[in-house]
Automatic annotation (TrEMBL):
Its EC number is 2.7.7.60. The keyword Lyase does not apply. This is 2-C-methyl-D-erythritol 4-phosphate cytidylyltransferase. One of its GO terms (biological process) is isopentenyl diphosphate biosynthetic process, methylerythritol 4-phosphate pathway. Pfam families: IspD (PF01128). The record marks 18, 25 as: Transition state stabilizer. It comes from Anaerosacchariphilus polymeriproducens.
């Protein structure tokens, strides 16, 4: 048995505005089960010890009975309410952790996180304390000005698209988020940004998988179902 304690924060408190659907995307069905089922299953079946599930306002009871109990996710030790922005939800999750060595922050809207990625990022965080999963971009990237004119074409070799989980030593991510709450930093879209901006701590990129995509817009649901049917 491992002596280190690994805790996951699974985020499911978003509104899913870009999905434009009546049902929030984390509860939409993929081959008969909610998107969130797949993300939680991956962590339930991994070496992660505990899961903190972060859900929307008024959704704790629903998630407890319709997701956690229904599918026997016994690693879920707490369900907490999220906040307005993703980073607020992460902070609520961090506050719910009493002790941990490593914290795995994962979008509930990324259902296809695999054990291989979790193993790779675990090896990484033991060495680097701050790791994000990502993949090299496939398209050429342009930096544009506010009028849509190209300013620069960065070398594609150095451009990665970042996924989750983003994994940190607990003390590091707790300190970064506590300081973030005392400051006003705009445009925070991932956890690594918090650690970069607040603590200037180096972040190591770990190879993920293109299948670890985020369900964001309606065509992602179609692609996710196709992917599941091929498995
Ligand atoms: N206040 C928020 C916003 C987002 N999330 C979660 O963070 C993940 C990534 O966010 P995103 O894909 O942007 O989800 P939404 O915010 O729901 O989508 P949108 O931006 O289209 O409204 C999702 O699992 C989402 O549930 C969250 O827990 N709390
Ligand atoms: C954290 C993230 O999934 C990494 O790609 C992404 O930044 C979340 O952004 P969103 O705008 O909240 O979807």
């Amino acid at each position: 048995m491992s002596l280190e304690k690994k805790v996951a924060i699974i985020l499911a408190a978003g509104q899913g505005k870009r999905m434009n659907s009546k049902v929030q995307k984390q509860y939409m069905q993929l081959c008969g089960k909610p998107v969130l089922f797949y993300s939680l299953s991956a962590f339930q079946e991994s070496t992660i010890d505990e899961i903190i599930l972060v859900v929307g306002k008024g959704e704790i009871a629903y998630c407890q009975s319709e997701i956690v109990e229904k599918y026997s996710f016994n690693k879920v030790v707490k369900i907490v309410e999220g906040g307005t922005e993703r980073y607020h939800s992460v902070y609520h999750g961090i506050k719910a952790i009493q002790n941990a060595d490593y914290v795995y922050i994962h979008d509930g809207a990324r259902p296809f996180i695999s054990n291989e990625i979790l193993d790779r990022v675990t090896v990484g965080v033991r060495e680097y304390n701050a790791c994000v999963v990502g993949m090299p971009v496939k398209d050429t990237i342009k930096i544009v000005d506010e009028n849509g004119f190209v300013i620069e074409t960065p070398s594609r070799d150095l451009v990665w698209q970042v996924q989750t989980p983003q994994v940190f030593a607990f003390a590091l991510i707790k300190e970064a988020y506590e300081k973030l709450m005392e400051e006003s930093i705009q445009g925070i879209t991932d956890d690594a940004m918090v650690v970069e901006a607040i603590l200037s701590y180096p972040i190591k990129l770990i190879e993920g998988d293109y299948t670890n995509f985020k369900i964001t817009t309606p065509e992602d649901i179609y692609m996710a179902e196709q992917y599941l049917k091929e498995l």
